[in-house]
Protein backbone atom coordinates (compact mmCIF):
# COMPACT_ATOMS: atom_id res chain seq x y z
CA UNK A 1 0.00 0.00 0.00
CA UNK A 2 1.40 3.41 -0.95
CA UNK A 3 0.55 7.09 -1.11
CA UNK A 4 -2.78 8.45 0.09
CA UNK A 5 -4.15 5.02 1.01
CA UNK A 6 -1.23 4.35 3.34
CA UNK A 7 -1.54 7.87 4.77
CA UNK A 8 -5.22 7.29 5.53
CA UNK A 9 -4.43 3.99 7.27
CA UNK A 10 -1.63 5.61 9.30
CA UNK A 11 -3.93 8.46 10.37
CA UNK A 12 -6.65 6.00 11.33
CA UNK A 13 -4.24 3.84 13.33
CA UNK A 14 -2.56 6.78 15.03
CA UNK A 15 -5.75 8.63 15.79
CA UNK A 16 -7.63 5.48 16.76
CA UNK A 17 -4.82 4.18 18.96
CA UNK A 18 -4.26 7.51 20.65
CA UNK A 19 -7.90 7.93 21.55
CA UNK A 20 -7.82 4.65 23.44
CA UNK A 21 -4.51 5.47 25.11
CA UNK A 22 -5.66 8.94 26.06
CA UNK A 23 -8.83 7.69 27.68
CA UNK A 24 -6.87 5.14 29.70
CA UNK A 25 -3.85 7.21 30.74
CA UNK A 26 -4.54 10.91 30.43
CA UNK A 27 -7.14 13.25 31.77
CA UNK A 28 -10.21 13.51 29.62
CA UNK A 29 -11.20 16.95 28.39
CA UNK A 30 -13.69 18.60 30.73
CA UNK A 31 -17.41 18.37 30.05
CA UNK A 32 -17.60 21.97 28.81
CA UNK A 33 -15.11 21.35 25.98
CA UNK A 34 -15.82 20.36 22.43
CA UNK A 35 -12.76 18.11 22.10
CA UNK A 36 -13.29 14.63 20.72
CA UNK A 37 -10.77 11.74 20.60
CA UNK A 38 -9.47 12.91 17.20
CA UNK A 39 -8.70 16.39 18.57
CA UNK A 40 -6.93 14.86 21.56
CA UNK A 41 -4.93 12.38 19.49
CA UNK A 42 -3.98 15.03 16.94
CA UNK A 43 -2.71 17.41 19.62
CA UNK A 44 -0.81 14.68 21.43
CA UNK A 45 0.96 13.78 18.20
CA UNK A 46 1.50 17.13 16.47
CA UNK A 47 2.86 18.96 19.54
CA UNK A 48 5.89 16.66 19.99
CA UNK A 49 6.32 16.30 16.21
CA UNK A 50 6.58 20.07 15.89
CA UNK A 51 8.86 20.43 18.93
CA UNK A 52 11.25 17.76 17.63
CA UNK A 53 11.34 19.20 14.10
CA UNK A 54 12.06 22.61 15.59
CA UNK A 55 14.95 21.15 17.62
CA UNK A 56 16.36 19.61 14.42
CA UNK A 57 16.02 22.82 12.38
CA UNK A 58 17.75 24.81 15.14
CA UNK A 59 20.89 22.69 14.63
CA UNK A 60 21.37 23.93 11.05
CA UNK A 61 23.11 27.27 11.66
CA UNK A 62 26.10 25.50 13.21
CA UNK A 63 25.96 22.08 11.52
CA UNK A 64 24.79 22.53 7.91
CA UNK A 65 27.38 22.42 5.17
CA UNK A 66 25.19 24.06 2.55
CA UNK A 67 23.99 27.64 2.64
CA UNK A 68 20.72 26.47 1.02
CA UNK A 69 20.09 23.97 3.83
CA UNK A 70 21.02 26.54 6.46
CA UNK A 71 18.66 29.09 4.89
CA UNK A 72 15.76 26.65 4.51
CA UNK A 73 16.09 25.37 8.08
CA UNK A 74 16.27 28.91 9.40
CA UNK A 75 13.08 29.73 7.48
CA UNK A 76 11.34 26.84 9.26
CA UNK A 77 12.21 27.97 12.78
CA UNK A 78 10.09 31.10 13.40
CA UNK A 79 6.84 29.76 11.89
CA UNK A 80 7.33 26.48 13.76
CA UNK A 81 7.86 28.35 17.03
CA UNK A 82 4.60 30.24 16.49
CA UNK A 83 2.71 27.04 15.62
CA UNK A 84 4.15 25.24 18.62
CA UNK A 85 2.98 28.03 20.94
CA UNK A 86 -0.53 27.80 19.49
CA UNK A 87 -0.54 23.99 19.62
CA UNK A 88 0.56 24.01 23.26
CA UNK A 89 -2.11 26.59 24.14
CA UNK A 90 -4.85 24.44 22.60
CA UNK A 91 -3.41 21.31 24.25
CA UNK A 92 -3.51 23.13 27.59
CA UNK A 93 -7.06 24.31 26.94
CA UNK A 94 -7.99 20.67 26.29
CA UNK A 95 -6.62 19.79 29.73
CA UNK A 96 -4.02 17.41 28.29
CA UNK A 97 -0.71 16.75 30.01
CA UNK A 98 2.45 18.25 28.50
CA UNK A 99 4.11 14.82 28.45
CA UNK A 100 4.87 13.16 25.12
CA UNK A 101 2.67 10.07 25.02
CA UNK A 102 4.52 9.01 21.85
CA UNK A 103 7.99 9.06 23.39
CA UNK A 104 9.91 6.07 22.08
CA UNK A 105 7.50 5.45 19.21
CA UNK A 106 8.82 5.41 15.65
CA UNK A 107 6.13 7.05 13.55
CA UNK A 108 5.99 8.69 10.12
CA UNK A 109 7.23 12.27 10.29
CA UNK A 110 8.37 12.03 13.92
CA UNK A 111 11.96 13.14 14.47
CA UNK A 112 13.19 11.02 17.36
CA UNK A 113 15.87 11.62 19.97
CA UNK A 114 18.01 9.12 18.02
CA UNK A 115 17.57 11.22 14.87
CA UNK A 116 18.62 14.34 16.79
CA UNK A 117 21.66 12.53 18.17
CA UNK A 118 22.65 11.43 14.65
CA UNK A 119 22.26 14.99 13.39
CA UNK A 120 24.60 16.20 16.13
CA UNK A 121 27.32 13.75 15.06
CA UNK A 122 26.92 13.76 11.26
CA UNK A 123 29.47 15.59 9.16
CA UNK A 124 28.18 18.55 7.14
CA UNK A 125 27.14 16.53 4.07
CA UNK A 126 25.48 13.80 6.12
CA UNK A 127 23.81 16.40 8.30
CA UNK A 128 22.38 18.20 5.26
CA UNK A 129 20.98 15.01 3.71
CA UNK A 130 19.55 13.71 6.99
CA UNK A 131 18.04 17.05 8.05
CA UNK A 132 16.32 17.64 4.72
CA UNK A 133 14.95 14.07 4.65
CA UNK A 134 13.66 14.39 8.23
CA UNK A 135 12.10 17.82 7.68
CA UNK A 136 10.48 16.70 4.41
CA UNK A 137 8.97 13.63 6.08
CA UNK A 138 7.80 15.79 8.98
CA UNK A 139 6.19 18.39 6.69
CA UNK A 140 4.44 15.74 4.59
CA UNK A 141 3.06 13.98 7.67
CA UNK A 142 1.83 17.29 9.13
CA UNK A 143 -0.32 17.72 6.03
CA UNK A 144 -1.70 14.16 6.26
CA UNK A 145 -2.49 14.44 9.96
CA UNK A 146 -4.02 17.90 9.58
CA UNK A 147 -6.44 16.51 6.98
CA UNK A 148 -7.51 13.87 9.48
CA UNK A 149 -8.11 16.50 12.16
CA UNK A 150 -10.00 18.74 9.76
CA UNK A 151 -12.22 15.85 8.66
CA UNK A 152 -12.90 14.29 12.07
CA UNK A 153 -12.05 16.81 14.80
CA UNK A 154 -14.82 18.46 16.79
CA UNK A 155 -13.21 21.54 18.34
CA UNK A 156 -13.45 24.47 15.90
CA UNK A 157 -10.23 26.14 17.11
CA UNK A 158 -8.30 22.88 16.78
CA UNK A 159 -9.66 22.29 13.28
CA UNK A 160 -8.69 25.84 12.27
CA UNK A 161 -5.23 25.30 13.73
CA UNK A 162 -4.96 22.09 11.69
CA UNK A 163 -5.56 24.15 8.54
CA UNK A 164 -2.68 26.43 9.52
CA UNK A 165 -0.46 23.45 10.33
CA UNK A 166 -1.26 21.94 6.92
CA UNK A 167 -0.42 25.20 5.17
CA UNK A 168 2.89 25.39 7.04
CA UNK A 169 3.71 21.79 6.13
CA UNK A 170 3.07 22.57 2.46
CA UNK A 171 5.18 25.76 2.68
CA UNK A 172 8.05 23.86 4.28
CA UNK A 173 7.94 21.20 1.58
CA UNK A 174 8.26 23.90 -1.08
CA UNK A 175 11.18 25.71 0.53
CA UNK A 176 13.30 22.68 1.45
CA UNK A 177 15.99 21.93 -1.15
CA UNK A 178 16.00 18.56 -2.89
Automatic annotation (TrEMBL):
The keyword Signal applies. The keyword Transferase does not apply. It comes from Amycolatopsis eburnea. InterPro entries: DUF305_CopM-like (IPR005183), Ferritin-like (IPR012347). The lineage of its organism: Bacteria, Bacillati, Actinomycetota, Actinomycetes, Pseudonocardiales. This is DUF305 domain-containing protein. Residues 153-178 are annotated as: Disordered. Residues 39-176 form the DUF305 domain. Residues 1-23 form the signal peptide. Residues 169-178 have a biased composition (Basic and acidic residues). Keywords: Signal.
Amino acid sequence: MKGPALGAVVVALILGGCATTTAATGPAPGPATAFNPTDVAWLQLVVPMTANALAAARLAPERAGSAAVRSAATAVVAPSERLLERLEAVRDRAGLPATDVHSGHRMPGMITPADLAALRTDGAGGFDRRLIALLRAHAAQLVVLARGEQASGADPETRALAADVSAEGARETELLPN
